[in-house]
Amino acid sequence: MDGLLLTGRSRSVYLSVQRSYEKHCALQNLSAWPVSRQSLTSWLSSRLLGNANQKAVKPDTALADLAALRAYHIDNFLDDKLFDNKHFRRLIDGARRPNPVTKVRVRNPISRDTITTLSAGLAALPPRPSEMSANILDDLNSATACRVAFAGFIRLGEFAYKTDDLRTRSIFSATKLTRSDVRFSSSLDHAQLTLKRSKTDRRHGGVQIILAKTGDGACPVDALQKLLLLDPKGPRRPIVLLPQKAIQSQQLPLDLIY
DNA sequence: ACATTGGCAGCCATGCCAAG
DNA sequence: CTTGGCATGGCTGCCAATGT
């Protein structure tokens, strides 16, 4: 049953907020569950105004807190009408008023040139799988990951998975990208990628991504063809593996495998 | 009078990052 | 590793403008 409720990151975030709220209630001598008008007002003001231990949180974070506490009610069949009460929105909007919007850090887009440079190793590969060394396999895998992610506008979460995710094979092959999700068109002018799960695919219907052949140094079709030829794997295996040396040197986020 | 369209802001599950 | 903070972005409902 629990497995059908929220999973992964969202669940752990919510649990964290819920524990923090419970601690607050204990200190204030308030009963935590179900959330009451008093306990929620007390908690929200303490979050919005800050206290000796914690600085004031952003109004949007307070909204996320509301969602987390509401999620507890939903999961436990408790009534959640209280959370719709306008009073709490007004508290948050009140906190928003005196605080100007903070500047967002500028992050420049990754360019085609960047991808070309990163995947330059694909230009010189041995002709047969038997001649692939561990290092060259590493390069092939990461270069393919770069090109496909760039060409397909793929989010990290759609493409990457954690070592942990490999433990349950059935869930892995039902939710993550595997070799069977790559199809080439007969003329090899494009490849089709099936995303079984995507952040925006809330109904879990699957999303088709078309990767057009570009023929330049960032061509995803070229990379995928070379990968399938020189690093053959079963249909239920991940499309590419992140090189161990990249994990160890922290060139890429820890514990992520493409 | 009712239907459709499009802009808009709020929602919230999920993402990344930093600190402990 | 966990926790906290907050940005992200598709979906949704609302509303006014426009169409029928």
Automatic annotation (TrEMBL):
One of its GO terms (molecular function) is DNA binding. InterPro entries: Integrase_recombinase_N, Phage_Integrase-like_Recomb. Keywords: DNA-binding. It comes from the Eukaryota. PANTHER family: DNA ADENINE METHYLTRANSFERASE (PTHR34605:SF4), PHAGE_INTEGRASE DOMAIN-CONTAINING PROTEIN (PTHR34605). This is Uncharacterized protein. It comes from Penicillium bovifimosum.
